[in-house]
Each structure stands twice: as C-alpha cells, then as structure tokens.
C-alpha cells in the first residue's frame, strides 16, 4: 500500500492545566500537533505508511516534537530544519458555558518563512499514493501557498490522490485571500473536507435555506453545498463534518459525504469531551485511511466519524487509537464497558 | 465612577485535589477567598474600583492572600494587620451523589477578634459609592457585628448605597441571634440578596405555599418572600438566587429580582460545575456592577446570573471573567464553541 | 458483633493519570485493592470488625499495602508473607465512547502460589461470624481453589455465614473450569452475589427470555435466574447487581435480591463515575454489613446499592464512606448539596 | 517486651512544595507529626509495641492522621476525640543560606484544651514499660502540664521508665515558666534528652566555658552540663544531640551520652538534608528502643544517632526506617551504594 | 522617598520541570521576569516605591504577568499595551557537570517593536528619584535604544539618578553594536554595574594581567577595570559581581565596588543553587535600595551581595526576600537554622 | 558507518517520586530502560545507526516503550512480540547516608522466556559492524544464554566486533553459573567492560593486593586484573569503570582501559547525582561510539567517561546528551555555566 504524505505546520500547544484559566496558570501542559501532522499520525496508527513534511528550527523543542512523531511511526526524514522558531499556541480549556480559548503566537515560524528550495517534492512523493493538506498551510504565507501548489502539481503529475480540509482560519487571512488562493489549489484536489462554515467563508458557497439568524442548515442544504462544491471544482468526494455544540463539555458529532452523485450520512455521537483539538483532523485521517483501504462509502464515513468521536476522548492533538478500536465503535459498541 | 467597599473575612481554602476525600489527601490545593473579597474581585474585573477591608495576621500566608487581591486590582490599603491567625477551611469536592463537604477552622481569626479601632470608616469610604457585606461578617463575633453597624452607619451618612447578601451560616450562629443582629443592620441596607433559605432562617419570612416536605417554592412564593422582605425592611431591591441541585456535578441556576414593585426573572442555566464556591458572591458582584453601571433591571439580573453561571466554571473563589465574557453569555452564547 | 473474614488477592493497581492512555503515561497513580480486601474495608468503615487474609511477598510495596489496610481498620495479622511478587494491573480510564481498559500482570503472585499450610483457618475464624470470598480467588490456581474449600469447610464447621460474589473472570479460567470448581464450593455458600453475566458464564443458568442479540433480561428473567440458583445450590439469599452502561462516564446502577421466596428491587441511580473499580465489592460489603446488622431485606438492599453508588465517586478500590453517608443517600438525599 | 507510651500533640504540617516560599505556594504538601508521635513511630518500626496518646477533634483530617499512625503500627486506641481543632503549622523549606521557616497555628487545639478526665492513665499504662514526653506537651497549657504530671506519677507508680526530651519552644512559654513546670516534672524522669540550648534555656544550666559570642561549647562543657543535670535531678541517663548547621542543606550531626558516671560520644555524620523535622525525635526513638533492647551504652548511642541521621533523608516527620537499616549505618555503611 | 523607575522587557520563562531536559518535558513551569522587572520587584520588597515600564500585548498571558507584578507591589500603570507578542524563553535546569541551557524566542515582542510614542517619560518620571535599565533593553531594537536614550535624557533633566547593568547578550547584538550604542547611553549613567565579562565585551576594557587561557582576573585587575570605566564615562560608582562556577549546582558569589576613589570588597558566599536566573538583577536591586537608603558603601555592597545570594535560593526571577532577611544574612547568619 | 546491534531486556522502571520511600509512594514515575537498550540510545544520540533486539509482550505498556526507543532513533524492527509480560523494577531514590534500593519483579518476562526461533540473527546483523550485550542477558534464562551464544557466533561469522559489559547480578545467578556461562561467551568478545567487582565475581580474577577489608584496589591492581582478563580470554580491549561512592548524592567517577599492552586512565569527575541508573551503560555506549569513530584510546576513554558523567545528571536510563555536549565536557568545561 503506498504511503500518505502530509504537509503543514507543527506547533507547540501550551495548555493551562485542568480547568484553570490562562491567567491562573503556573505551568503549561505541552503537546505537539497541527492539522497535517495529526492526519499523518492517524494514518500511521491504522497501519498506513505516512510521511509528514514541514520546516522546524534546530532546537531541542523541535527535536522533541519530531522524536514523538517518529515514535508514533510517522516518517520525518523530509522535515526541513532551520529558521527562527516553532509556532506556539496557548489553550485554555473551557467548561460548561465557558468556551475554550486560544491565543496564537505563530507568526515568523520556520514553516511560515520556508522557501520552495526547502522541499524536493519529487523525492518526497517517491512511493506516495496520497497527499493531504489543510487550508491552514497556504494561509501561513504567500511562499507557503506557492509551495503547496508545487506539492499539488507534483502530486498530480505522479497520480497521487490529493485531499484537502478547507479549515478556514480568520486570524490568518481574509475570506477574499482565502477564496483566491484556495480556488487556485482546488483544481488539484480530489477529496474536499469541510465543516459547516468553510465552504461559505472560503468560496461563498452556501445553502439556499440557511437560517440567517441561527446559522442552522437543513440536510438538504448540506447536499446543495456538496453539489455546488463538486460542480465548481470537480471533486470526486466532498465530506462535511457536523458539530453541534451543546456546551463546552458536550458536543454532538456526525458527518455526511457526497460521492458519485450519492449522499451518505453517518451516525451521530453525543460526546463528553476530553480534548476536542484535532477532532476534524482525525476525521480526515480516518476517511483517507478508510478510502485507501477500499471501504465502501458508508463504511468509510462511519469509520471516519467513529475515529473522530474517539479523538475527542484523547488528550493531545494526535488520535492515539487503533484500527480495532475505531471499528468496534463504528460497529456499535459505545457503551464504555471496561475492556478487561 | 465611585468605588465599592466590601468588608468581611478572607480565608485560606485548603482543598483535597481532584475528587479525593479529605481522608485521602496528601496535599491540599490552596486558594484564598471569602464572600466580600469575592464581590470586590468581581467588581474590579468589570472595571469598577473596589476596596476590600478586613483584618489579617502579619505572616506570609496572609501576605500572599493580599498580594493576590492587589494583583487582581482590588485595593488592599485598608486591610488591618495583626491578630493571631487567618481562618482556614478544608474542602472536599463532591461528585455525583456524594456532596462536597467543608470543615471550618475559622475560630479566633484576626478579623473575628478585630476591634472597632482597627478601621477608620471615614477614611475608608472616601470616594466610595457602594458598600457590601454578607451575613457572615456580623456572625463572626459581637465585635464584628458592631463594626458592621459602624460601617453601615458611616456609609449611609455619606450616601453610599449598601448591599447585603444574607448568607445564613448555621455553624456561626443560631437563627435567633442572626435574626436579632441582622434585623438591626437591615435598616441601612438598600439591596438585599438572598437564597431560598436565608429569608426563612434569618427573618422567619417564608412563602405561604412552601411545600413542607420538599422545600420547593413556587414562583409566586418567591414573590411573596420578596414583598415581605421589602415591606419589613424597606429595601429598594431584593434579589433571590435559585439553585436546583441535580447532583454534585450538575446544578440549574437562575435568579429573580423585585424592584419598584416589579418582578424580574432570569434565564436558567444548566451548569456542569467546576467549582461552586463563590457562586452566590459572583451574583452579588455582577448585580452591584450592573446596577452601578446603570443597566435596566432585567439586563442587570441577566448580567448577574450569567456572571455567576460562569463562576461555576472557574477554579477558586474569585470570578476571573471579563465584562465582555459575561455579556456574551448573557446575550445568548452558551454553546462553548472555541474562541480562536 | 462477630467479625468478618475475607480471603483473596490484594493487587497493586497502576493507573494512567487523568484521561491519559497507557501509551501516554509517564507516571502511574498507585492504589491497592482486590475484591475481598475491598469488602473488608467496607465492613470496617461501617464499624464491623474485619480481617483480610492473603499472601504477600516481603517487600516494601506489600508493606505499604498492608499498612494502608491496617490504617483503615482491617485486621492484617493473618496475612501470610513470602512468595515472589504482588499481582499488578495497569488501568487506563476511559471517557465517553472510549472504554476503560485493563492489562493484568498477576501471574505468579504470592497468593496464586500459596499453599494450604500458609493459613490456619481455625485460628483465623476465631471470633468470626461471616466469611466472604469471590470467584476470583479459586480461579487463581488449583491450590487457591483448594484453600478456598478448606476455608469454607472450616467456616461452616463453626457456623460462620458464607457469602460469595461469583465474579467470573475469563482471563483466569474457562467457563468449564469455573463451573466445576465453583459448583463444588457453592454448597458452603449462604449468600450468593452475582451480576447479570455471572450465573450464565459460571453455571449456565440464564433466563428463558434473554434477548440473544442485546443481552437484555427482563425483571422476570432475573427472578428466574435467582430462583434457579437457589434451587440448585440452596442459597438463603441471592443478590444481583444491575449495571447499565450509558457510556464510560455515566452508568445506571441498581440491584435486586431474592430471599425467603420474596423478591426485592432497589432504587436506580444515575452515576457520573469517578472510579468504578470496586463498585461490585462495595455492594457486597454493604449487603454483608446490612444483613449482619439485622436490617430488613429491602433496607439492606437499599443500603448496599447506596453504598456502591457512592463507591463510584471515590478514587481507588476502597469504599471510603461512612455508615451515616450511606444511610443519608439510601434515605433519599442524592442532591449533592454542600454539607457545611 | 513491654510497650512504650508517648503523650503529646499531633499536628498537621502544611509545607510549601519543593523550595517554594510560603508566599508562592498554590498547594501545600500535608503530613502529620509531633514529637511524641514521632517517637512512637520509631519504636514501632523497630518492633516495639507503642501507643500514642493525645486528643484530636472528630473530623476527617484527624481521622486521616490517626489512620496513618495505626497503619504504621502505633496503637491509637487511647486517643481522646473531641475539641475544636487540630494544630497546624506551615513550613517553608530553606535552601543554602536561606533558613527554613515555620508559622505555627496551634492555639486552641483539642489537646491544648484537653482535661484530666480525657485520659485514664491506669488503663493506658497497662502493659507499659516506658513512657516518653517532650517539653512541648506541658507547654501547651496548664492543664496539659498537669496531665503530664498525672501521667508521670502513674508511670512511676507502676515502675515504668520515663524519658523526656526537654525541647524548649520559646513561642509556647517563657524560660521562667518552662523552668518552673519542667523542674516539677523532672523528678519522675529517668532519661533526659536535650540539645545544646535546652538545659540553659529551661534550667539555666550551662557550661563554664561557653563562648558567649558564638555559643560554641567544648566537649568538656557538655560533660559539665550533663553532670549538673544529673546532680540536680538524679537522671540515670542524660543524652545530648549536637547539630552543626553548615547551611540549610548540610548539617553535621552527632550526640553524646552520660550514664553511670561515664561519657560516650558518637560518630559524626555530614548530612545532606531532605527533611530535618523530627530529627531530634528520631534520636529519642532510637535511644529508647536501643536501651529497651539492652544494648550497651556506646552501641545504643550509635544506634540512636544513626537512626536520626537517616531521618534527615526521609520526607515527613516519621522516621520510616527499619532496624536493619539503622544497624547497617551504625556499623559503618554510609556510602549510599544502591541496594539491589 | 522618591520612586524607582525601571524600563525593559518582561518575558515568559518556560522551564522544564525539575532536572528534565527540554527534550523530555511534557509540561513547563511558567514564571515571568526580566532584568528590569526583577530590579523593580527587589526595590518594592525592601519598601521602595517602584514602577516598571514596558510594552506588552493585550492577552491573558501578559495580563497574568502584570497582575503578578502589581501583587508584588510594583507600579504597572505605565505599561503600554499592544503589539504582537510577549517574549518567551525556554530553560533547562542543569545539574553537576551539565550546564543549564536557554532557548530564546523573543524576536518580534511588543517591547522590541515599541515606538517612542508609547511612553511619556515626563509623566513616568513624576516623583522618581532613580532610573534603572540594563544593556538588554537597547539591544532589543534600534527603537528601544532610542527610547532608552529618551528615558535617560528625561531622567537626567529631572535629576534622577541613573543606574545601568551592562549585561551583554551576544545573541542580541555584536560587541561592536553594543559598544557604539552603550557608549552613547553611558553619559547619562551614574552607577554602572557589570560582571567580569561585560566591560571587555561592550567597551573593550580589560585588565592588563587577564590570564588569556583561563579568563581569571586578579583583584588588582578588577580595580583597573573599574578605574578605566570611571575614567572613560565618569561614573560615580562602578560595581562588579564575581561569580565562580564550581558546577551547575554550586557557585561562589561576591562583588566589589569602586566609589570616590575607594575600593570595597564583599564577603564571598558558597551557594547551593535553586534558581540562578535573576541573580545579577537582585544585586542591582539590592545596591539601588541600599544606596537610596543612604547606607555606607561597604554596607551597601554587603546588602546587595547578601540579597543576590538569597536570590539563588528562590524559585523564579523575582527575589522574594524581605529587607530583614537580607540584613540578617549580611550581618552574618548563613547557617540555615530553622526560624521557628 | 555500519550499525550497532544490542540484545537484552527492556524493563519498566517504576520509581517513587522525589525522595519518597516506596512505602510512601502514591504514584510512580515510569521510565523504560535496560543495559543494552541504553547502549543503543547512546550510540543513536551520537549519530550511529543502532538496533535494539529483545522480546516484549503485545500490550500498550510495551508499545510505549518501543515508541520511545524509535523516537530516539533506535531501530526496533527486530523486536519480537509475544510472551506474558514486561519485566518491572521498583526504585527508591536514596539520599545522603540512605542508599537507593531496588525491588526486581522481572521473572517470567517475555525475553526471559524467549526461544531461539524468535530471532533471525543473519537478518538482524545485516549491515552491522558492532554487537553489544551485557552479563544480564545470559543470566535471564538458559535459553537467553543460548540465544546470546547464537548471536555472538553469527556476529563473529560476519566480522562484527563484539563488546560485553560483564555486569554481574547476584539476584539472577550464582557466581558459579555466571562463570561457566560467561566463560563460554567470552571467546567471541573483543571488548570487555567491567566494574571493580565483576571480574572477581564472574571469573575469580582479582588483584594480588586487594585489601580484603575495604575492597580497595590499587591502580596496579586494576592493571593486573586487565592483564589477566586479556590473558585468559584474548580481549583486544579491557575497560574498567571506577565508582567511589561518597554518599547517595555524590560519587566520584573515572575509568581505565587496557589495549595493545598499554594502560590509559581517565580524568575523575565529582558528580552530584540526579539519576545513576544507566551510568555504566552510558560508558559502554560512549566507548563503542568513540572506538567506532576511530578515536585514539585516551580520547575514546575520556569521551566514554565524560558521557557517563553527564548521564548521572539525566533523568531516566537513557543518556540524552549530544556528541557535542560530551566533547565539551571531555575537553574541559565542567563549570556548569549557563549556555545561553
């Protein structure tokens, strides 16, 4: 089975312990993660060969991040080293009516200041069958957008299947910039993954019947969005994750998928959240694996949603679950009975 | 905007970590708090000038308590120093059907043995527009009751608006003593804050239709209580917090208010509790601020309830939230979505 | 009041902190426990004299386990010392849809390699009125099964009431072995305790209308099981605990009992779980105490269920609650209000 | 071998973690201890039967303290329960040139307000051969001094050997009060233990050649002190511990003893300190055990000094070492080689 | 007594816990500090009014840093808010032969991108008698150098005494840049503080007899350096701290001072280090206070050295010691005896 | 450069936190290590390709151990999976005169019950230039001894250089067994590493002038031992580590080496110990690397000793230091100055 390559930023997450506010923190829990690294870890956990590509500074903080990825079975040999710093973000874990909050300190990171010459895509894609990136990577800098395009072009030239999670981040770019850059990249993309806001924010694609006040969309609305995305960009697959935020502790989670003119809808899980960071990425990772493994669309979607349901119970960005655990949940056992 | 003065005891809270019982604790988490200090912190967080008055011993434990308050923007220059000790209480955090429990070790504290000469109320009230105390302060000792009366008298003489949270504590005094002393103080009070039991315990005022078995009271019952309190003591405002304890982890929380012959009722929040100590105080702090800022009664009540809802998600006695956060919740966003 | 003797294995539980997976653990929380020790601690907490009998190696890990038991009021003077090691198990605490999981490392423990000569049952039962063991003990080794039988025989010879929690563990023996050995022991047993699976797995006794697909059993089904157990083995009492696993964080918990031809059914509690290990043992401990104290069947059952409900809120195997706390819950206060 | 009875206060020690100052502490490590309890634990560790007598309030903090003692093998059945509170002290661990510091909050403790009727000395001394107290106990209150005298009188009446560690604490009483009360008690004492200051502070007994400026005393000076103590009170044995404080991390530690007209001097240890609280008590505990076990004076002194040397490496007040470990050090192995 | 103003960067220090390497860290202890803030805290601790001036972003991390300073009694009302980020540095605590190491991530901090208009020096110096900065501040950016000069000029215009710790940092600028900028600033400086390398690195001033191989300098050599600094820049006082690094755990620490043509040399302390960050700043803080309080040169020097000796035993950048504690050490008590 | 293969046991080390005794531990710090894995990590850190071979059970504890090794750059693809358990040992960290102590629980581990068929040495040694094992591996079981011999034979057949650290462990086998088995293996060994006791315990080789009482050996004595080892077994190199245990916190550390008829002696380091486990292995790892890199004997010995000196400052078994750090120490910088 050919390998998966992902490309993006790897950050240091500093999180106030327990339910403390950042203003109360005397220490921070430190984990590493980032959309594309998270997807690579998911794939590696399920037994797929996976390579993560980024640029990181030459210091022990970055060394530790790389060692953890390598320990988790992700290939790290194409990570460029150099530049000034590793992106950081501070997290405060919400509770009940208090939302989690995030302070980004990612400007001037090594990857955001990387250059085309840092990556030899022909070498990187040797043996690859899949390439994945998110909308965060091209948003980091014009150079990153351009490198993303290099990667996409090289991928398509080799017949590598390209997936992209739109992942719009308003702190990184405007909707206009996002629309312009992402539209250019979409022509290389086979599988498009989005949440309920991304298609609107990035491409101005929304359902006719979107309730302006509440933002709620009907199932039919989501189908419209999927069809319109497919019409505009020619995706083979569009997948949409659906998060209902009851409060900071409880979310409902499901997804739908549009492929070959058919719509698929997953089970919905009520999740008591341990750590929701990386929830979307674990869906992408599950879907890429399931598709790669040749699962039928409905089964692939259920695998991806079950995988991301479990991610919400795992500390840290990476979805440290096995294929067997995902399959058990997808096939129905969510009772939480002790496995002795 | 004139400042708020609050007067009461500041204690060291020693809490068994996590869900451990006190009998299992090998360490205690240490925070500082007390009803009136909590109110002062709330007000300071919303941008009001606030001064907290108490008496504390001259030792590093008390120094740390004062430094924290000063760091949070509360004026501490009128805190008297001296006496034997700081009051302590041990807390064991409940879970599910197991209630939290508290062991008080507050006798002989510096404030409970304070004398009138420790406080110069004319100096303290310089520039003040509000004064707040709770029913705990006069319960500490006859001298404290008398000092409270001094403070109330000085406040009224300067036109300072006085608020009081009845806060009946059966470990500190009998209902008879409480009734006698508190009745004497009520003549200075403009805004009376209470929970469902206080009016009954302290003044023997209860609704006609109180269900003797379950203690539940109808809305009309609460209105009666408010009216009777107002009739007896001439309060301008009576506010009542309504806690429904589902279990030790989940409470419903709302409030009502009676002012100018009108009743106001707030939204009700289902709260997954992080730390409920200081919940009532954060209501008082929110109400005092909102009233001081000139909000309409319904808006003020919603602000106070939202503030105290958020307090239940904060570790420690102090309500470390901003005005903006309270307003966001009061105006409807309790979904707990990540604020990136 | 005569004392309770329990006999079984005492293990070291190593648990990944918080919600970390074992693969993420850099430290383990260490507690001690085991079915029969847990029952002894429960009884001691309620004021009953209790002795725990086992064999443990001579090293400081075992010393600490014994010192904790002694501190909790359990007699430890009949614990044999020697052999190679203390059984260990690693626990990973589940969350939401992710189940808790357990890795056993208990082979070759001192108790599993104990010999008959390690225990002088005449001496041990001096002053005893009750003897309790679980189906785990005879499963440890043929010698343990034989020692169990020695103990049962000695108990019956002295008129000691014998209780047994069937507690089938598939990692320790097959259903065939279990059936053979346990049937031999049942003739000494007065009070049989089981969960919904045990009677089926150990004795092949199941309700006629068990739903093959979902495993759900009707109330009438449980009654059948109780009657059949009683018919086959002549128990004076059969008690069955009923756990409904909503997810890894929330379980419903109740029990039923069959005695003197009458069926009793308890209240059902919705529990937000802190630590479910030892939940069944706390039921046994509560039932033994309540029966010993002469409570009526319904009251005894409610005491046992309330006790085990509270256990789910306690960290560690041992049910660190007082008789007063159990009685308060059994008689209706599960609101989790702060006890000040 | 008959048992040891000790009588005194048991306190909760709250210690700022690591090398943090109290003003920086956000949690406190909690241990229990007190001079006489520490001695009882030492004796129990070496295999002597030991009973600790005190009065403690009825709350879970005190329950935990008692459970720990019982777990360590100390008899706790004569501990009176009741009164208001358990004494507390806060500790800040020094480092290098910064001394450790202590804040006492022990006034109004249950033991300091105990009455004669709380203790039935005839019952308590049943089976006893030794009684030990320190100068702290009679300093707690006049009632405590009187109860101490009751105990001494009852002890002597039964032929129990009485030992006392003078342990002068200037925060509890003046040198005058100490001199008056302790002189009265000394007539019952057989073995007197002191450090370099106690004899001077309590009885005004000092060496002729004490260097007024530095407080250093020659060996001959110590001999004089021992002889004068013996002459005045008729002790059978006087033992003096000698601490040289290099800095907060390093102390030298040795002792001398005067018995039957002979002087004995121990080895001196250079100690890298982990926790020096209870260092003196572990000397008393070692000496009482060694004497009771019939060791020769020099051997007994070496045992006591080695025991207390080891105590300085143990976290908490209690000297958690075995007789074998003490003997190994006393007989020469202080190299700290790993014992595999 | 007029106030002290200090100006510089305030950073977040993230430190691997205990003796872990950064590559092993799963969490970081978080403290705040920076040369000039450290000096302000020292002064405030000794009772001097002190104001710290910097620029910090508007986020909760910076809020917490400011709250802590305010809690410690430092004025924070002139801190400009805005800009992108707070400087961060990662620390790994060395041990024995392994040196501590530091990773700086301070580029693009708010202060380094501050502009002249952020600070109104006339307002800031209202009531000031002292101004202090270190060589780090002008090294942050050309704008910072220029703002420093503005501050110095405004200070001199009001007769404020200016002190500067040269503090050369090779990661921030070259020796050439440092020499050029610092020479320009020196004309405003009255009191120059340096360590053994600074004068050489910044101004090329070194002793004639410096041993080229080992870098050791004789006392006479230091005197030469002091004289040459004074001759070139006309300082009223030059103070030099002398650190001898035995290993990462033990340092010897002393200082000398040149004033009015006289040389003063302090005692030397052998320090077992808890945290050496801020050691030099605590010397500056002590010297400024002592000078301001009118101590004689030798006494002032001893106060400053004792203060900085104690700092090495304190966790975090800030020297949390009282004047009384410094005086006790300066006057001779470094024995580390427990202060009860 | 060809790779290094090491073969042995990988264990879980459970260590009581800080300076707590095992009997006080409520949690254990968990690290992984073992003589041969430690050597592989050292080599990988210095840039050598390294493969570690063992057998481990299929569970998440072992998964985590393998992931960590892989993260550190050690090849893990030849680790056999299966068997019952991972060996465990409990550690209590000593202090001052109290020695560290260890409780082994390693019997029945997967590696000790491994069979020849678990390892395909021809495959494993593909590309290898070095093979290393310690005397612990053949001591685990007769099968392990036999597998070791298989490995040695395969290594020699391919011209792989074999090194062995004698590492006698009396808990695993008698001196007689050790002598018999190890003598058989020595014929394959090129480089023999030992401490002062091993040659005597395993082969009965000791210096003529060994002081019977103190065990001290002169330099000439060590030379004799080296010569006799070389004469008997034909080693190309014999290296001896020399540990002087001042106390549990401070050790002196040096080594000597005999090669080609010449003796080499290293510098001696006084080490303040953080964690001494793995100290000897870090010497072996340093020596193998240095020799492989072609350093001269004296330089290689200094590299190995400096590497192991640094190991004593690192938490955990693995020597997490870089080649550059070792070289800096070997070439003289042990001052512990902060590296900024």
Assembly state of the chains shown: homohexamer
Taken from the alpha-carbon principal axes, the silhouette of chain A is globular
- How many domains comprise the coordinates of chain A? 1
The poorly predicted ranges of chain A are: none
Strand content of chain A: 15-25%
Number of helices of chain A: 11
Describe the largest sheet of chain A. Answer: 9 strands, mixed
- CATH superfamily membership of chain A, which one? Ribokinase
Structural class by sheet pairing and helices of chain A: alpha/beta
**What is the CA-atom radius of gyration of chain A, in angstroms?**
19 Å
Largest interface: A-E, 28 and 28 residues
Order of helices and strands of chain A: EEEHEEHEEEHEHHEHEHHEEEEHHH
Distance between the first and last residues' Cα of chain A = 33 Å
Named CATH architecture of chain A: 3-Layer(aba) Sandwich
Word description of this protein:
- The structure is a homohexamer of 340-residue chains.
- Chain A has 340 residues and is α/β, with parallel strands linked by helices.
- The first copy, chain A, has a single domain, classed as Ribokinase (UDP-N-acetylmuramoyl-L-alanine:D-glutamate ligase), CATH 3.40.1190.
- Helix content of chain A is 34%, strand content 23%.
- Chain A is built from 11 helices and 15 strands.
- Chain A has helices spanning 35-45, 60-71, 121-124, 136-139, 142-157, 175-186, 198-203, 219-233, 279-292, 297-311, 323-330; strands spanning 3-7, 11-15, 27-33, 50-53, 55-56, 80-81, 88-92, 101-105, 128-134, 161-165, 191-195, 237-245, 250-259, 262-265, 269-272.
- In chain A, the strands form 3 sheets. In chain A, strands 1, 4, 9, 10, 11, 12, 13, 14 and 15 form a 9-stranded mixed sheet that branches. In chain A, strands 3-2-7-8 form a 4-stranded mixed sheet.
- In chain A, a hairpin with a 4-residue loop joins strand 12 (237-245) and strand 13.
- In chain A, helix 1 crosses helix 9 (279-292) and helix 9 runs antiparallel to helix 10 (297-311).
- The first copy, chain A, is globular, with a radius of gyration of 19 Å.
- The two termini of chain A are 33 Å apart.
- The model of chain A has no long low-confidence stretch (mean pLDDT 95).
- Chains B and D meet through strand 3, helix 2 and strand 7 of B and strand 3, helix 2 and strand 7 of D.
């Amino acid at each position: 089975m050919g390998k998966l390559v992902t490309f993006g930023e790897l950050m240091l997450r500093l999180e106030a312990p327990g339910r403390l506010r950042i203003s109360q923190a005397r220490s921070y829990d430190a984990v590493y993660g980032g959309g594309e690294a998270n997807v690579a870890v998911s794939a590696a956990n399920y037994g797929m060969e996976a390579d993560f590509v980024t640029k990181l500074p030459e210091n022990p903080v970055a060394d530790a991040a790389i060692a953890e990825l390598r320990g988790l079975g992700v290939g790290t040999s194409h990570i460029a080293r150099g530049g000034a710093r590793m992106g950081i973000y501070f997290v405060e874990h919400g509770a009940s009516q208090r939302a989690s909050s995030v302070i980004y300190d990612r400007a001037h990171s090594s990857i955001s200041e990387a250059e085309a010459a840092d990556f030899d895509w022909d070498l990187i894609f040797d043996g690859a069958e899949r390439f994945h990136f998110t909308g965060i990577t091209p948003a980091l800098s014009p150079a990153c957008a351009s490198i993303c395009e290099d990667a996409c072009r090289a991928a398509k030239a080799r017949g590598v299947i390209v997936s992209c999670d739109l992942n719009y981040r308003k702190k990184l770019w405007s909707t206009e910039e996002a629309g312009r850059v992402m539209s250019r990249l979409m022509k290389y993309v086979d599988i498009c993954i989005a949440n309920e806001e991304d298609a609107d924010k990035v491409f101005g694609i929304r359902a006719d019947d979107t309730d302006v006040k509440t933002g709620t969309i009907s199932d039919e609305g989501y189908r419209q969005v999927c069809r319109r995305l497919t019409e505009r960009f020619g995706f083979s697959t569009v997948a949409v994750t659906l998060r209902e935020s009851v409060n900071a502790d409880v979310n409902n989670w499901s997804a739908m998928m549009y492929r070959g003119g058919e719509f698929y809808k997953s089970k919905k899980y009520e999740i008591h959240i341990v750590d929701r960071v990386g929830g979307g990425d674990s869906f992408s990772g599950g879907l890429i694996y399931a598709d790669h493994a040749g699962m039928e669309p409905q089964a692939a979607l259920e695998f991806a949603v079950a995988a991301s349901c479990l991610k919400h119970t795992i500390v840290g960005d990476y979805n440290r679950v096995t294929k067997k655990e995902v399959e058990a949940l997808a096939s129905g056992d969510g009772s939480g009975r002790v496995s002795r």
